[in-house]
Amino acid sequence: MKKNRKNKNPQSGFTLIELLIAIVIIGVLSAIILASLNSAKAKGRDAKRIRNIEEIRKAIELYVATNNVAPDLGDPNCVDPNTTDVYCFTNDWTGGTAKPWDDFTAQLNPYMKTVPKDPCGIDCYNNDGFHRHEGYFEYVYQAPAMIAPLNNPPDVTITSSSYRIYATNLENGNPKSFGFGPGSF
């Protein structure tokens, strides 16, 4: 025996209005989730910056304990605070007047196999080489010959074992630098 099926409404389905409402709700939820993810990524990069700078500082301290001077960036004058050379610094991106980051990382190699770079990397720069965010995102090392002329703070004595290592700018509501050494932030 065959049952006879009757369609109560042969045009059943969603109306255009119902579909549009569902699409709008999904879109709003997606926007909220993406905004939360971007904030979490920035917090994660800040946490990584803080850990990286701490690890680099430990490697520099081991270098200083072994050699009695701070890393010289391939220029022996950089460890002499009386030289007052404002070019005795390096950063983890290429460009500007900095000494090569590779010279710095080579000196730390026995104490730290790979010296990290800022986690934002190339994402923080546009095609013209300018920063996409409001500030620079880089790691900077300053040798004694650079710290001495800055005289920051003025009551700190700069010696051949003095140095400053810092990350410029944290993304999550803290634009200040984070680092270690004379006049740290």
Overall geometric form: elongated
The SSE string, one letter per element, is: HEHEHEE
**Overall pLDDT score:** 81
Report the helical percentage.
Answer: 25-40%
Rg from Cα: 27 Å
C-alpha end-to-end distance: 87 Å
Reported for the largest beta sheet, the result is: 4 strands, antiparallel
- Biggest sheet: strands side by side, in what order? 1-2-3-4
Count of β-strands: 4
- SS-based structural class? alpha+beta
Low-confidence stretches: none
Q: Counting H and I runs of at least 4 residues, what is the number of helices?
A: 3
Task: Give a quick precis of the structure.
The chain is of the alpha+beta class and 185 residues long. 36% of the residues lie in helices and 8% in strands.
Draw up the topology in text.
Elements: H1 16-67, E1 89-91, H2 101-108, E2 139-142, H3 144-150, E3 164-167, E4 178-180
Antiparallel strand pairs: 1-2, 2-3, 3-4
Features of the shown structure:
4 strands, alpha+beta
Describe the structure.
The chain has 185 residues and is an alpha+beta fold. Helices cover 36% and strands 8% of the residues. The chain is built from three helices and four strands. The chain has helices at 16-67, 101-108, 144-150, and strands spanning 89-91, 139-142, 164-167, 178-180. A four-stranded antiparallel beta sheet has the order 1-2-3-4. The radius of gyration is 27 Å and the shape is elongated. The N and C termini lie far apart (87 Å). The mean pLDDT is 81.
